[in-house]
Amino acid sequence: MALPVTLPLIDITPVGTSARPATSVLIIYTGGTVGMEYNKRGELVPMKFEQIRKKMPELRQLNMNLSVLSLPEPIDSSNVTATDWLGLAALIEAHYSAYDGFVVLHGTDTMAYSAAALSYLLENLGKTVVFTGAQVPVGRIRTDARRNLVTALDIAVARHSKAGTVRVPEVCVFFNDLLIRGNRAKKVESEQYNAFRSENYPPLARAGIEVEYNDKQVRHLPSAPLRVHQHLNERVVILKLFPGITEQVVRAVLEVDGLRGCVLETYGSGNAPTAPWFLQCLRDAHQRGVQILNVSQCEEGHVIQGQYETSSQLTDLGVIGGEDITTEAAITKLMFVLGLGRSPKETARLLAQDLRGEITSG
Ligand code: ASN
Q1: Ligand 1 in reach of 269 Cβ (< 6 A)
Q2: CB within 8 A of 32, min separation 6: which ones?
Q3: Is residue 128 flagged as an active site residue?
Q4: Pick the catalytic residue: 13, 81, 108, 128?
Q5: Residue 77 annotated as binding?
Q6: Disulfide-capable partner of 124 in 2, 139, 222, 237 (CB 3.0 to 4.6 Å)?
């Protein structure tokens, strides 16, 4: 998708309200199953936003002003790119002051990557950006699109009752009944409705009859103004270890021309082979300036370099412990931090640091 900041706005005017509603949300429709239909070959393909608008007349019954920015060509999220994330961040920046909150309708396959990327790009976010979508298209009788979208809209404008301040100033994912921090989300289901989980951080809210917020887990409102970053470095790779991996494979990956960063998916609490050839590959890569971030293949738990002999040497080789970060948040963090263009030392320091709540540090 190409994301021009000047996409035409579609307004959804509320019915039956004489006074102008007090709140407003910008929906950015990128595609995904939520708006898909079957083509002649029986494959699901993304449709225009009009499809969702027609199938969800209730959007006009909400007591809020809704505007929609729809990509000219909505996509299956398997096609999303880092350029699209920069485009999404720029769109939010361009419309930031005009809306109380933002909902990004997105395919579920890469939603966790996109939400994590946006969490880094939107520094000092003081409004709510909710990613949501569906497992079943909006036109199907058992669709989850309605519930997900309507609740996401509610969350996007949620305020603390007394102070009136923004309740969730974060990039987050709402799906099924959970509101999860965007850079903690992981797609765990392709067949059930509860597609996302956050293993290492509690949900920010749970939606039952009411939305119950877990205010203590939500990030504080920033005191500085929004700062939108404009660079991501795509010269990165994910290298997943497995018993039997060969030197040839590890070398081929780490010696990719121009590579700047690698998420190394290790075992357990961050353990890796101690074979001399393996350690030499890491040493060589580090000396060529490749930043290596150690992330566990376990969904729950923490990287602790030095707990076992099999992870002790990694620290000496300059490998950075990724704590309890997800692979999705780690690869996008690498892209973001490398995109800042800092010195190797400063880059390593930022990679080890908690930037947007993506790791539990300390
Ligand atoms: N393939 C779809 C997508 O990510 C899956 C979905 O949205 N449920 O765009």
Answers
A1: no
A2: 46, 74, 75, 76, 77, 105, 106, 107, 108, 109, 111, 133, 134
A3: no
A4: 108
A5: yes
A6: 222
**59 by DSSP, 3-state: which?**
helix
* 144 annotated ligand-binding residue: no
Q: Rounded distance, CA 46 to CA 79, Å?
A: 12
- Comparing 9 with 127, the larger pLDDT belongs to 127
DSSP structure string for 128-149: EEEEE--SS-TTSTT-SHHHHH
By most ligand atoms within 8 Å of CB, the mutation choice from 29, 52, 77 for ligand 1 is 77
Note the pTM of the prediction, 2 decimals: 0.96
pLDDT score, position 1: 54
* pLDDT value for 216: 97
Distance, first Cα to last Cα, the chain:
39
In the annotation, is 360 catalytic? no
Domains in the chain, ordered, with CATH?
Answer: 9-228 (3.40.50.1170), 236-352 (3.40.50.40)
Which H, E and C letters describe 100-130, residue by residue?
CEEEEECCCCCHHHHHHHHHHHEECCCCEEE
